Amino acid sequence: MGSWISKQLEPTSAHFTYLILSAFLLVYAFFSDFIRNRLHLSEPPLATLVGIIFGPQVLDVVNPESWHWQDTVTQEAARVIVSLQVFSVGLELPRAYFSRHWTSVGMMLVPVMTFSWLVTAAFVYGLLGTKWSTALVISACLAPTDPVLAAAVLQGSRFSGRVPRRLRHMLSAETGCNDGMSFPFLYAGLLMLISSSVGDALRTWFLSTLLWQCSLGLVIGLILGHYSNRALRIAERRDWIDPSSFLAFYILLALLSVGIGSTLGLDDFLVAFGAGTGFAWDGWFANKTKATHLSSILELLLNSSMFVYFGAIIPWAKFAPQDITPFITPAKLVGLLVLILLFRRIPIVLLLKPLIPDIRTYPEALFCGHFGPMGLGGLFLVIEARARLETGESIPLPHPPEHHPLKTEIETVWPVVCFILLGSIFVHGCSVTAISLTGHFMRPKGERAPLLAAEDEGLGGMVHEGGGGESEPSVSGDEDPDPPR
């Protein structure tokens, strides 16, 4: 009997993955309010931890290598998920947001991101002893803030209501833009490694990266979003579209923007963000769908699944010295992580605080400087970097080549970026818990909430009233998609 039953079972790694992933998401769904609003934890660190525990380094139940997946799968999965998230950011911002807040967002995107790129490169170069061009490639993968991790904290939780909407909107807008804005930084380092001359590198960077990929990508995204909005209005007004298709239009348009961007060789993330921004510029679609929680559903299913996958593919063995990368050690990686978390954004945001209108106080500047998580966007960028180093194109080889003139660079970028992403997922993913607990115990006993870290008033040192706390809702649309809590 036992042998007959064993013949019926098919306990493959893929089948176990379906079982574990769905079980994790169901358990999280059951306790989601308790986890988000009492423990102040978000999905990414928990999902990553599940991937680590059930991955090949611990229980070896979820093992993507046994599925014969290649680097292209990781690249395309990250491309789609991050693009959907940046599209969602564009969709959920208040009406015509950038027309009023372009100064603040621009400061976060240009001087802050440039500083982050250069200071991170300096730490990599000084601590690991890589080439300067290699350090620039690694730092470009770590320069953008991740929209997936940011959304897990900035939306739909008790803690998010304690942060002024003005800051939440600014940080959301930044995360939507800067994954795409990282391409010029990434290709600056890559072209230094693979171009035959400085002139050729500058010409390729300006024409291909800056004009074609980024500028044209953003313009096409804005046009696509704007005219899709007009078309959907006509279809809805004339009863051509049913309610389910109306909701599906959001996801389909995001996927269309990814398809256009990737097919034309444009910056996928800027195309998707531009499409979301153009589509939602007047606030009409956000008001129509605000009760459906579409983005929350996507976050639970797609984003959490991708973080489980990341936890299962972390290259633990490559965090130790290898023949080709003897300069990578656990101690150096930990030191690099600490330096990046402390100095990548915080000093420059504090310094530029007087020039960023939406940041009113230095505690707000400290919060915005700290809150720069790195995640799935960096995962896509490091695969893109490896592909360009391996083949000169954006399509990677199935696995890193055994012999290659840039073998050291190829084998360096992957473990370094993965380690920093791993550290950021847990540090930034657990920051809300730390902030909430610290704030709770710093209060006099008589002023503490009855439940541990259950305070719901605004964070101290921040401006929460009037225009200081809001994003001018009176001119942000018929109704602000993120009403005051």
Features:
68% helix, single chain, disordered C terminus, mainly alpha
How much helical structure, as a percent, in the residues?
55-70%
Radius of gyration: 22 Å
Which range does the strand content fall in? under 5%
Count of individual beta strands: 0
- Category from helices, strands and their pairing: mainly alpha
Concise overview:
With 485 residues, the chain is mainly alpha-helical. It has helices at residues 2-8, 13-30, 32-37, 43-54, 71-92, 97-128, 132-142, 147-154, 165-194, 198-237, 243-263, 268-279, 284-289, 294-313, 330-343, 346-352, 362-370, 376-391, 407-429, 431-442, 466-469.
Secondary structure topology:
Elements: H1 2-8, H2 13-30, H3 32-37, H4 43-54, H5 71-92, H6 97-128, H7 132-142, H8 147-154, H9 165-194, H10 198-237, H11 243-263, H12 268-279, H13 284-289, H14 294-313, H15 330-343, H16 346-352, H17 362-370, H18 376-391, H19 407-429, H20 431-442, H21 466-469
Helix pairs in contact: 4-14, 4-19, 5-9, 5-11, 5-12, 5-14, 5-18, 6-7, 6-9, 6-15, 7-9, 7-18, 7-19, 8-9, 9-10, 9-12, 9-18, 10-11, 10-12, 11-12, 15-19, 16-17, 18-19
Description:
- The chain is an all-alpha fold and 485 residues long.
- It is built from 21 helices and no strands.
- Helix 5 (71-92) runs antiparallel to helix 14.
- It is globular, with a radius of gyration of 22 Å.
